[in-house]
Amino acid sequence: MAELAIETEKLVKTYGRNRGLTGLDLRVEPGEVYGFLGPNGAGKSTTIRLLLDLIRPTSGRVSVLGADPRRAGVALRRRVGYLAGDFVVDGRQTARELLTYLGNLRGGVPRARIEELADRLDLDLGRRIKGLSKGNRQKVGVVQAFMHEPELLILDEPTSGLDPFLQQEFLSLVREARADGRTVFMSSHVMSEVQQTADRVGIIREGRLVTVARVEELREQAVRKVEIHFADPVTETEFSVLPGVSEVTVTGTTLRCRLEGRADALVKAAAGHTVVGLLSEEPDLEEIFFGYYAREEDTRVAA
User: Fold this and answer.
1) Measured distance CA(28)–CA(3) in Å, rounded
2) Do the Cβ atoms of 81 and 141 come closer than 8 Å?
3) What is the CATH number of domain 6-214?
4) Contact between 191 and 221 (Cβ < 8 Å)
5) 190-221 b/e (C-beta count within 10 Å ≥ 16 → b)
6) Per CATH, is 223-282 categorized as 1.10.10?
7) Which H, E and C letters describe 11-66, residue by residue?
């Protein structure tokens, strides 16, 4: 069985009386894109810093590519690409000088590889870092993370400052990494990024994972808006008693409702009439995310 790309066990990080993580158990499979979601303060950046040994855990265990980040040192870092949401480096060098230097630290990166990535991101390698805008500095960060084709990419809010066109180019790089069998662990507030690329999503709240699921599974569990047009009028009563169906309204021959979970009962009930048209509005990951948080909050209040 292949080694996990990332594994944490009962991981705890405290800051004085405050807890950043409260027993995090994380499993990231090799070759997958794992979306790591949560609001500000949930523990996303703390988790990433622990994975990179930028900070040390209070207790618990961390494994990255089968190694302890604290003990594996430089050898492990050469196998990892990291990008923070605000890429900050010494501004006196040109982008080319910096990337060449970082490439050499990682065992050498062909100049053609750096040039190719710079071209894709429309990055001028001849300009000094201090003269670049935030968006262009972030392009430098993207290049340095991907250029040595690492086994594992750890990306913390990676498209901060990039315009929409370059965000799409970044997502292409993520998909290419996955196609090559590499692993991507990506924290993001841009739900569309995760929706377009992730195999699985972990949602973190107050330092603990509250759910882990494939994106398709989250969609199946989510609430959808459904509109059905019939040839003849129907009654609200017939449909409002169906499992998973709520907020039923009927206007003339048009029925509108919200559907949570499987559509089987609703489809079978509709099939008892002549259906002229049906529209099901698929939720995006943002709706799923906030819907899940709302349900979690209701559960906490009830407890």
Assistant:
1) 10
2) no
3) 3.40.50.300
4) no
5) bbebbbbbbbbbbbbbbbbbbebbebeebbeb
6) no
7) EEEEECCEEEEEEEEEEECCCCEEEEECCCCCCHHHHHHHHCCCCCCCEEEEEECC
Bridge partners, 255 (sequence order): 228, 250
- The residue type found at 61 is R
Of 27-41, 157-171, 247-261, the one with minimum mean pLDDT is: 157-171
Residues paired with residue 36 on neighbouring β-strands, in sequence order: 187, 202
Contact 236, 249 (CB under 8 A): yes
Residue 59 has pLDDT above 90, yes or no: yes
Tokens, residue 245: 């169906």
Residues 259, 263: Cα–Cα separation, whole Å: 7
**pLDDT bracket for residue 34 (50, 70, 90):** very high
Q: Which long-range contacts (CB under 8 A, 24 or more apart) does 217-222 make?
A: 218/285, 218/288, 218/292, 219/282, 219/283, 219/288, 220/261, 220/262, 221/260, 221/261, 221/288, 222/260, 222/283, 222/287, 222/288, 222/291
Q: Residue ranges of the domains in the chain?
A: 6-214, 223-282
Name the amino acid, one letter, at 153. L
Length of the chain: 303
Torsion angle in degrees (nearest 10) through CA of 176, 180, 181, 187: -20
Kindly report, residue by residue over 104-122, the tens digit of the pLDDT: 988 899 999 999 999 999 9
Alpha-carbon separation of residue 17 from 13, 20, 266 (angstroms):
11, 10, 50
Who contacts 40 (Cβ-Cβ below 8 Å, separation ≥6)? Answer: none
Please say whether the beta carbons of 188 and 159 come within 8 A. yes
Quick one: which of 154, 161, 157, 159 has its CA closest to 177? 154
User: pTM for the full model?
Assistant: 0.78
